[in-house]
Design brief:
Blueprint lengths: L8 H7 L1 H14 L6 H14 L3 E5 L2 H11 L7 E5 L4 H9 L3 E5 L10 H7 L4 E4 L11 H11 L2 E5 L7 E3 L5 E3 L6 E5 L13 E5 L2 H11 L3 E3 L2 E2 L10 H11 L2 H19 L5 E2 L14 E5 L4 H10 L16 H4 L9 H9 E4 L7 H15 L2
Parallel strand pairs: 2-3, 2-4, 4-5, 5-8
Antiparallel strand pairs: 1-9, 6-7, 8-9, 10-11, 12-13, 13-14
This protein binds pyridoxal-5'-phosphate (PLP).
Length: 376
């Protein structure tokens, strides 16, 4: 049996190696390392794929969130509602820009921000909501957009974990996540569903004037070279990464389907187990399984992880410490919040290996060892 990895980017690369190598050589040959044709091509293809009006590539997913918040012209002290149960980048950027992160509770089934919690946290200072499509499942965007409309708030989707996920509205219409809010953000970190071989990110919007400001924010505040109208930053996707991503984008649906097959295999094995809750999929959301995350009850999670590690099966806790308990926010003097569901999930979740390159014997082995331990 091939060794089991959380993510197997190498085997995935080997299947498209000749195309990728050729695309990299083309960039080297063109010497257009920054803003070359590869970047223009990829941006266009990604824009079509996501179904957004504008796509602005940038250096990574954290920058994408920062650029989004910079472009909205938020003022220090403005409040931004985000889930606490997310990767730190989402909330760190809020604090970096001297905005105030306000931590909302999540839905214990979907792991995504709970609209009822958002409603309770809105104050006159609230300016934006940042839902995160965690693990590859969409946050309830229809209701979030409704709340935003009622209170005149911006919505920035953190789509770093859900590129390719389709959202179904109550009228039956469909959109890709990342194209629903005022701004969408994504990451091409190598382990993401659409991963580069280095860093990368992108910002999406359907708003023409926001698109201009987003581009400026990512490029030293300039529209015309050397005329800097706003304070921006320097955040670019380089041409080699764009060329690689352009090839991988053509495989994204196939990659997401491979993840869904792995999840289906796991689901079948773990469904109806009294100590295991398998991932929930809401009727409005697709699931592209950036992570396959179980909730355990009555299982010693540390001991399970240790057992699996001995059996050479990696597993991860995403995330062991929620935002509202991170030291970095202590320094901001935020009022203490009590997020029971988030704290509870933090102690219950475990993510099993998921990627596009599994062999059947590996999956069977993982399932049997997890059940071996839990049924013991
Ligand atoms: C990966 C990730 C980011 C940040 O992306 P980077 O490219 O690593 O900067 C932001 N938010 C979430 C939810 C992520 O998973």
């Amino acid at each position: 049996m091939k060794p089991i990895q959380m993510v197997d980017t190498k085997s995935q690369y080997l299947k498209i190696k000749s195309q990728v190598d050729e695309a990299i050589m083309e960039v080297l040959d063109s010497a257009a390392y920054i803003n070359g044709k590869a970047v223009t091509d990829f941006t266009q293809h990604l824009n079509n794929y996501v179904g957004s009006k504008h796509t602005i590539p940038c250096a990574n997913g954290t920058d994408a969130l920062q650029i989004a918040m910079m472009a909205l012209g938020l003022q220090p002290g403005d409040e931004v509602i985000t889930p606490s149960f997310t990767y730190i980048a989402t909330t760190e950027v809020v604090a970096l820009l001297k905005l105030k992160p306000v931590f909302a509770e999540v839905d214990p089934n979907t792991f995504c921000i709970d609209p009822a919690s958002i409603r309770k946290l809105i104050t006159p200072k609230t300016k934006a909501i940042v839902p995160v499509h965690l693990y590859g499942h969409a946050a309830p965007m229809e209701e979030i957009m409704q709340i935003a409309k009622e209170h005149n708030l911006f919505v920035i989707e953190d789509n770093a974990q859900a590129i390719g996920c389709t959202y179904t509205f109550s009228d039956g219409s469909k959109k890709k996540t990342g194209s629903i809010g005022h701004i969408g953000c994504t990451s091409f970190y190598p382990s993401k569903n659409l991963g580069a071989y280095g860093d990368g990110g992108a910002v999406f919007t359907n708003d023409d004037s926001l698109a201009i400001t987003l581009k400026m924010a990512a490029n030293h505040g300039q529209q015309t070279r050397y005329y800097h109208d706003i304070v921006g930053c320097n955040s670019r996707l380089d041409s080699i990464q764009a060329a690689i991503l352009n090839i991988k984008l053509a495989h994204l649906d196939e990659y997401n389907n491979a993840r869904k097959s792995v999840a289906a295999f796991y689901n079948k094995a773990f469904a109806n187990h009294p100590k295991i809750t398998i991932p929930f999929v809401a009727d409005y959301s697709d699931h592209v399984y950036h992570q396959y995350t179980l909730q355990l009850s009555g299982v010693d999670r540390d001991a399970l992880q240790k057992y699996l590690a001995e059996k050479k099966i990696p597993s991860m806790i995403y995330y062991p410490v929620p935002g509202h308990k991170q030291k970095m926010f202590d320094q901001l003097g935020l009022e203490k919040v009590n997020l029971e569901i988030t704290d509870d999930l933090t102690s219950k979740v475990i993510s099993l290996p998921i990627h596009t390159e599994f062999e059947q014997d590996q999956l069977e082995y993982i399932v049997s060892e997890v059940l071996n331990f839990i049924n013991k």
